[in-house]
Amino acid sequence: MNFLKLFEKPDLVAAHRGDRSRQPENTLSALRSSIGKCDFIEIDVQLSRDRMPVIMHDETLGRTSNAKERFRDRKPWHVNDFSFEELQSLDYGSWFNGRSEPLLTLQQALAFAIEENQYLNIEIKDMSAFADDAEVVQTVITAIEKYGAESLVLLSSFYHPYLQLSKTISPVIPTAALLEHKKKDLLNYLRSLNVNACHLDDVITDRHTVHALRASGFAVNVYTVNDPVRQKELFAWGVNGVFTDNL
């Protein structure tokens, strides 16, 4: 079964950055803790200064690592300003539970997905100020193809040029447009991107939008929905899945 087949199942639950209520987000521990609790796992990918794909949400390292202590003179600690070797030297777990956690790379996340037959939604963070769009997308897709993980992956982004490039480079990998604001002529816009799904901020999600998207053939997933009552309401509207911090 590929990722698009997964959307044929009702009431999907996505682990937002892994099981982040129990383990440090976007670490291998968070991914492993998600097994059996969700239908797919959402992670975030960025590139190091030397173009290695690493799993991290924030633009900066301050919140989820010990970069401020290890590299005091590198403020504001942008992920893209650090080499892969430097990123590997940091601890990504002590901030959360006092236990050290290593850097999670995209390659390690894909190896995990293959080993566990686990679906991954890989969000490509906007790095357009740091690297050429084609370089970013090609780097991510090359890693996916290296592991033969195309059937287990959905690519998403708030920076929509990445999605168009992804379809050009690898048409078989499904894509999803992340949206945090309402958009005029949404259906035609999504068609122009050639995406398979739309990931909506819960704040802008209403029954009419969900029905229109589903009727037009788009899968709809909503972030970040931690309230079980709201989850049920969204599923009743026809939403395919919800991203949640609470598994």
What does this protein look like?
The structure is a single chain. The chain has 247 residues and is of the alpha/beta class. The chain has a single domain, classed as Alpha-Beta Barrel (TIM Barrel). Helices cover 34% and strands 19% of the residues. It is built from eleven helices and nine strands. It has helices at 3-6, 28-34, 67-70, 84-88, 94-97, 106-116, 133-146, 161-169, 186-193, 207-215, 228-237, and strands spanning 12-16, 40-47, 53-55, 119-124, 153-157, 175-179, 197-201, 219-223, 241-244. The protein has an eight-stranded parallel β-barrel with strand order 1-2-4-5-6-7-8-9, surrounded by five helices. Strand 6, helix 9 (186-193) and strand 7 (197-201) form a beta-alpha-beta unit. Helix 7 (133-146) crosses helix 8 (161-169).
Please outline the helices and strands.
Blueprint: H1 3-6, E1 12-16, H2 28-34, E2 40-47, E3 53-55, H3 67-70, H4 84-88, H5 94-97, H6 106-116, E4 119-124, H7 133-146, E5 153-157, H8 161-169, E6 175-179, H9 186-193, E7 197-201, H10 207-215, E8 219-223, H11 228-237, E9 241-244
Parallel strand pairs: 1-2, 1-9, 2-4, 4-5, 5-6, 6-7, 7-8, 8-9
Antiparallel strand pairs: 2-3
